[in-house]
Amino acid sequence: MHNEDVLHSKKGFLSKYEAYLGEFVYGGIDGCVTTFAVVAGAVGAGLDSAVIIILGFANLLADGFAMSIGAYLSSKSEKDNYQKHKQVEYWEVDNLPDVEREEIREIYAAKGFEGELLEQVVEVITADRDRWVDAMMKEELGMIEETKSPFKMGLVTYMAFLLIGLIPLLTYVWDYFYPISGDRFLITCVLAGIGFIFIGFLKTYVTETKIWKGVLETLALGAIAAFVAYFVGDLLEQLIVGS
């Protein structure tokens, strides 16, 4: 295989991977934030490690599944809505060609085309039925077809939620089998911080922002969620158990 073919193959693989990077990032952020918050709240309430593991995994599996279903349904609804409007445009092109042709003319006239050039653009677009409908979908309705698979979007979201969301639980799972002498919550905070840094770094490729900004935003989000959960857990423990 020539070098050009290898490079093309790699680019094709990366483009497929990057297509779902957004779902991986946001699934990972949500997984790490919510699981870390559950752990922090449980620690604040003084709950036993076994209870923390149960609550953590219950949240990890249930919330991750709910988030993935939401991503799947949202994407599927968007695709279904696009197809519904596309069929309407096909009907209008077939049954009201003069009206639709005039709409194309008005759209491109508003873009600055005029005279013979405008008529050529209209002629080229309306000469092909599919091209005509695609132009109407984009220019008139402002709709662009989603090419990603709803199932893959949901699957990637769920896998990211599980993989990154598992990080705050690792310390307590390890401690359950091999007791740790150090501060388990401190270790959890360090591991969660690493998870936030990693997912924040990936987030910069999706949002196209500076690396330090993406990492700090994600770290701050996780810290705030854990802070609130910890003190809410501590407060409830004092009010309910303490009373």
Describe, in short, the structure shown:
This protein is 84% helix and 0% strand. The protein has helices at 3-19, 21-44, 49-95, 97-110, 115-126, 129-140, 150-165, 170-177, 184-207, 211-241.
Give a structural overview.
The longest helix is centred in the N-terminal third of the chain and has 47 residues, at 49-95. The chain is elongated and about 80 Å long. By secondary structure, the chain is an all-alpha fold. Residues 1-14 have low confidence and may be disordered. The chain contains ten helices and no strands.
The main pleated sheet reads as:
none
Distance between the termini: 74 Å
User: Secondary-structure element sequence?
Assistant: HHHHHHHHHH
What portion of residues belong to β-strands?
Answer: under 5%
Shape: elongated
Unreliable residue stretches: 1-14
| Radius of gyration, taken over Cα atoms and rounded to an integer in Å | 26 Å
Oligomeric grouping of the chains: single chain
| Topology, number of strands | 0
Write down the overall mean pLDDT.
85
Structural class: mainly alpha
By DSSP (H or I, 4+ residues per run), the number of helices equals 10
**Percent helix among the residues?**
over 70%
